[in-house]
Design goal:
This protein is α+β, with helices and mostly antiparallel strands. It has six helices and eleven strands. It is about 25% helix and about 30% strand.
Length: about 250
């Protein structure tokens, strides 16, 4: 690689450096590749290490880089696309669903969830926990709440807990006549349990996607999915579900 010196520009030097680094990431590095150390990068671009750190921090905020403990700074995978406004409706766990079931328990949900499901405050519901991976890294976690009344045919589950129980609940959902769904997306802060799963600090920015599934005019299930804000982007169109875009030309930067 040749040495690239920065010319005098009116914008902050670290911001111009960020643009130069972005071009280098697109042309010279692959997903998961570890960047050279700060000393070598600063020498290559002819900047102070403080300027370099500012540029790297900005690229990390934008989801182009990841700081991994014990590894270093690596090139981030393409952002996960969170589809909104789709006209296609499918139950969680349907064919092609990339979420992985983790566990399922029966317990009273949070008050806001109970209100949305129109269940009693102390009435247990099936709570399915799932995770979403991209390039070997967990980028989202989901809690799917399903009232027992939505699945009267689910009289017994052999597995008391774990992924097997979660799959049983998801299979039963597929038998219900899904009429539609609505989805809301909002920026939030990672709670301690979500932050631990997503390898983020508590309070880190996340996107919270809440989806209600309707059967016979009532909310039959409610999903609360939490995405790392640095690894996802909103997509609009008719494609259903969550997509991962591997085309570098489609990356958000």
């Amino acid at each position: 690689m040749g040495t690239t010196q920065l010319e005098s520009v009116p914008e902050p030097k670290y911001w111009h450096l960020k643009t130069v680094l972005t071009e280098a990431l697109d042309s010279e590095f692959s997903v998961g590749e570890i960047l050279p150390n700060e000393r070598d990068l600063a020498a290559r671009f002819g900047v102070a290490r403080a300027t370099l750190r500012q540029a790297l921090e900005q690229l990390e905020l934008e989801g182009r880089l990841q700081r991994r403990r014990g590894v270093g700074t690596t090139v981030a995978p393409p952002r996960v696309g969170v589809a909104v406004g789709t006209e296609q409706h499918t139950w969680p766990g349907a064919a092609g669903d990339a979420w992985q079931p983790v566990d399922s328990v029966q317990a009273p949900p949070p008050a806001a969830v109970a209100a949305a499901l129109e269940t009693g405050a102390d009435e247990p519901v099936h709570t399915v926990r799932r995770s979403r991976m991209s390039h070997g890294q967990q980028v989202a976690t989901e809690l799917l709440y399903v009232p027992a009344a939505s699945m009267p045919g689910l009289t017994a589950i052999d597995a008391p807990s774990g992924a097997a129980r979660a799959r049983a609940v998801l299979r039963e959902l597929q038998h219900l006549p899904l009429e539609g769904e609505d989805r809301a997306v909002e920026l939030g802060s990672a709670r301690a349990d979500d932050a631990k799963e997503l390898d983020r600090l508590p309070g880190s920015p996340v996107l919270v996607v809440t989806t209600r599934f309707f059967v016979q005019g009532r909310t039959a299930a409610l999903s609360v999915a939490t995405y790392r804000a640095d690894t996802c982007r909103l997509t609009f169109g008719e494609s259903a579900g969550v997509e991962i875009h591997h085309d570098p030309e489609k990356r958000a930067s």
